[in-house]
Amino acid sequence: MENNSKDFIIEQIRQRIADFKSEIKEQNFGKVVEIGDGIAKVSGLSEAMMSEMLEFKTESGSVFGVVLNLEEDSVGAVLLGDGSAIKEGGEVVALKRILEVPVGDDIVGRVLSPLGTPLDGQENIKAEKFYPVEKIAPGVITRQSVNEPVQTGIKAIDAMIPIGRGQRELIIGDRQIGKTAIAIDTIINQKGQNMKCIYVAIGQKESKVAGIVAKLKDAGAMEYTTVVVAGASDPASLLYIAPYAGCAMAEYFLDKGEDVLIIYDDLSKHAVAYREISLLLKRPPGREAYPGDVFYLHSRLLERACKLNKDFGGGSITALPIIETQAGDVSAYIPTNVISITDGQIYLEPDLFYQGNRPAVNAGLSVSRVGSSAQIKAMKKVAGKMRLEAAQYRELAAFAQFGSDLDEETRKKLERGKRLMEILKQDQYEPMDVALQVVVFFSLINGLMDNIPVDKIREFEKGLIEYVKDNAQDVLKNIKEVKVMDEKDEEKLTKTVNDYKDTLDYLIK
Amino acid sequence: MKIKAKQYAQALFLEARGKEGKELSNVIDKFFEVLKTDNNISQIGKIIFYFNELWNKENSLVEAEITCSRSLESNLKNDVLSYLKKISKAENIKISEKENKKIIGGFVLKYGDKIIDASIKNKINSFKNSLLN
C-alpha cells in the first residue's frame, strides 16, 4: 500500500517533468527612471497595457508592479511589494498578463492577501483558475431583480431595512459605533443559508482583523468565509486592489451559480489609498484632493454586485460596503458618492449608541430601496406594521416631551413604541433566526407585550423564544419552509404566547 | 514656454541631418550656445538619449546587447547578427557583447526595448516555479 502511494507520487512528478516545456519568448523590457513612495516610472516598455503586471528584477529576487499610467515615453506603475531593492536603471519586464488573483474552492476558510498569498501560515492556494482583478460588471441582459432575502439575523435590519441577494447596502456611521459588528453578525448568521462570504479588510489594524478571524472561527463561520486582508502596514497599492481582488474571488462562486456575500471594510480608507496613489502619479487633484475618477473607483466596484438570472447561472453577489464618517458628516465627498451608488444605507447614529440602543440603527435615515421585495411573506406581514409603529413613536416621542396630559390613544402608542425600541436591542454575535424574529414582532404588534414592564421586555423575549421553540415547533417550521403564516398559525402562536405569559409573575395588572 | 528635451533633440537632428565635417561641428557649437542661453545644459543627458533614438531610426540602426556565459565564436556571432536583422527588420546592427557567469549557459539578447531570455538560469527558474505550483 505504502509502496503504491510512493510510486504514485514519483509517477506524478515524472509526469510533470515530462510535461514541462520551456518557452523562449520575446519580452518587452524597460528601465526604471524614477522610484519612490511605492511608485515607479519606467522608460521603454513600448507595448505595455493598462493594469498589466510588471516584473522588477533586483538582486534579491523580483518585485511585481501594475501599470496605472501610460505616458508619451514612460509608464507609471505602482509596486505591489517592498521596492527598497529596486535601483534606478534597473531592469523591468512586462509580463503580458493583466493583474489576476488565484481562485478556487480552496480559498474558502483562508486568510489571504489581495494577491492570493496565504497570511494564515498555511500552504499556498491551489488555484483552479486565475480571475482578472478588474472586470466589467455583468450587463443588463444577464441580470434579474432581487428576489431572495439575505438574513442578517439583526432584528432592526431584517424587519425595517431588509436586504436582498444581489443588493448593495451601505453601512455608514462614525468610528467605534458597531459598523463592523453588523457585518460580522451577518456573516455568522449565514450558516446553513447557502451563502459564501468574503470579508475584505482595507487598511484595518492587523489586531482587529485577527480578532475578527478568531471570532468567525469560534462561531464556525470560517467554513464558508474567506478573509482578504490589506492591513494598515501594507502599501497603498495593495489597499487599492484589495476590494477588486475580493470581488474577483466572489465572481468565481458567482460563475458557479452560488450566492456570495462580500463586505468591504471600509471604502473610505480605500478612497484615501487611491488618492495617495493618484497624487504620487501626478494626476490632478479635485475636491478634498481626491482625483476626478474617485466616483468611478467605487461605482465600477459596486456594479459588480449583481443577481444573475437563471440563464446565466442564477448566482448573486451581495455587497455590504462600509463607510466611516467624520463626526456624523454624511454630506462629505466619499459618503455622498457611495450613498448614491448603493441601493440603500444603514445609518448608525452615535446618540442612539450611547443611549444603549445597540445596534444603533437609525430607522428614519436608513433605507433599503430594493430589499422589501425579497422579504419572506411572514416577515413582510409583521414588518410593515412595525415600521409604521416605529415612525409614529419617533414623532410622538419628540412631541410628548413637552406635555404630560396625553390622551389614551397617544399614551398607548408611546408605551408600545418603548417596547418596540427595547425589542430592537440586540447583543453582538447573537444573530437571531428569521422565524423567531417573526414570532417576537408578531407578539409586539398584536399587543401581547403591552402588559410586560419595559425593563423586563428583553428577559421576556428570551423566555418566549425558548418557550416557542419547545411548544410551537410546527409554526416555526411553517415560517421557515412555507414562508407564510396562515390564520391557524397565528391563532396557535397567540395561544402559545398567552400560555407563556401565564407562567410569569411580573405582568402589569 | 518650457522646451522639452525631446524637442531639442528633434531640432538638433533636423539641423544636423545631411551635414558633415566643419558644418556639423558648427551646428553642434551653436546648439550648445542655445542650450546655454536657455539654461538647459542639465538636460543634455536626456537630449542625447532622444537624439540617439532619432538617429537610429533614420539610419535603420538597432543597438543590441548579447550576454553569454563565455565569449562567442565568430560564426555564432554572425548567426546572431543575421537573426537580429530578420526579427528587427533593421539594416544595421550595432552589437555589444557581455560575459556573465551567473546565467550559467545559453544567452540573453536585448535589442531596442525587447529582450529574449534564453539563459539556463531562466529555464531553471521557470522549471522550479512549475514544480512548486
| Largest protein interface, residues of each chain | A-B, 18 and 16 residues
The N- to C-terminal Cα distance of chain B equals 55 Å
How many β-strand stretches of chain A? 18
Please indicate the percent range of residues of chain A in DSSP E strands (runs of 2 or more).
Answer: 15-25%
Structural write-up:
The complex is a heterodimer of chains A (509) and B (133). Chain A is an alpha/beta fold and 509 residues long. In chain A, helix 7 (294-302) runs parallel beside helix 8 (333-341). Chain A has helices at 2-19, 155-160, 179-188, 206-218, 236-255, 267-280, 294-302, 333-341, 350-355, 377-400, 408-424, 434-445, 457-471, 473-481, 487-502; strands at residues 26-36, 39-44, 52-58, 61-70, 74-79, 91-98, 100-103, 111-112, 129-132, 149-150, 163-164, 170-173, 195-202, 225-230, 259-265, 316-324, 344-347, 367-368. In chain A, the strands form four sheets. Chain A has an eight-stranded mixed sheet, sandwiched between helices. In chain A, strands 1-2-5-4-3-6 form a six-stranded antiparallel barrel. Chain A has 15 helices and 18 strands. The termini of chain A are far apart. With 133 residues, chain B is an alpha+beta fold. Chain B contains five helices and four strands. The longest helix of chain B is centred in the first third of the chain and has 18 residues, at 21-38. In chain B, 11% of the residues are buried. The model of chain B has no long low-confidence stretch (mean pLDDT 87). Classes of the chains: A alpha/beta (509), B alpha+beta (133).
Quick gist of this model?
The complex is a heterodimer of chains A (509) and B (133). Helices cover 39% and strands 20% of the residues of chain A.
Search tags:
heterodimer, A: 509 residues, alpha/beta, 8-stranded mixed beta sheet, 6-stranded antiparallel beta barrel, elongated, B: 133 residues, alpha+beta, 4-stranded mixed beta sheet, 5 helices, 4 strands, 55% helix
